[in-house]
Amino acid sequence: MNFTGALATASKTMTVSQRNELVMEYLPQVKRTVYRIASHLPSSVEIEDLITAGTIGLIQAIERYDPSRGVKLSTFASFRIRGAVLGELRSRDILSRTNRRKVKELETAITRLEQNLGREPTDEEVSTETGLKIDEIDNIKKVAGLTLISLDEIGYSDSQQRPQLMKFLTDKSDDPQTLTKLKELKSALAASIESLKEKEKLVVSLYYIEELTMREIGDVLDITESRVSQIHSKAIFNLRKKLRKEGLLD
After folding, report:
1. Longest dimension (CA), the chain
2. Which end of the chain, C or N, has fewer beta carbons within 10 A?
């Protein structure tokens, strides 16, 4: 069965064989999503467990996919896969309320220092201000990198509203309130990315638009993978801080 034929098959009438064929087709997307997320995680997290969670998300996407909504299967599956992996991380306390609070507190401290100093503070100055060690600050920034655009934070956390977000991302939303809020977010995010330092902007572009891995970006920029990870974490942290300042993150 080819891809077009699979899409034309409603999930309720899809055979096990057809479903399994789609799962195999999209499995590389699961692995790519997991490895991209894993680049921000401590080594103690088992990759295979995340792949299992992502695969379950993929199967759920295939079974629940409704082509009449005007959303591509690849887009729908991408949300489900990433959501399943992040859900697994939440269950392991990686994305717990405590860690989210730490991210927000660090963002607030850095903003306060920027206002007092009139410039971006160094890690040492942030460490003195917060009482955190530099490696603790780095770890908090990595957590922030996992939640650049959290559906919970921008007010689309329930099952009723998530389809509206997906429709917006595929230019299909016809709900004025949804359209206005998310266009505002999209515009603010674009402006925030533009305000990043050149190397941060380049890393964000290569990672999210070109979809290169951290290692591939390192090869392009001739720097280490760990350095790419540091630049990415800092960029995402700065983006979150700017969006929160705009009132677009809770």
Report:
1. 63
2. C
Domain-wise residue ranges, the chain: 3-91, 95-133, 148-245
Greater confidence (133 vs 205) lies with: 133
Residue with the two structure tokens 């997307």: 29
Separation between Cα atoms, residue 41 and residue 88, nearest integer Å: 13
Ramachandran angles phi, psi of 246, nearest 5°: -80, -5
pTM of the model: 0.57
| CATH fold of the domain at 3-91 | Rna Polymerase Sigma Factor; Chain: A (1.10.1740)
Decide if pLDDT at 140 tops 90: no
| CB contact at 8 A, 47 and 34 | yes
The band of 83, judged by pLDDT with boundaries at 50, 70 and 90, is confident
- Pick from 177, 164, 187: which is nearest to 246 by CA? 187
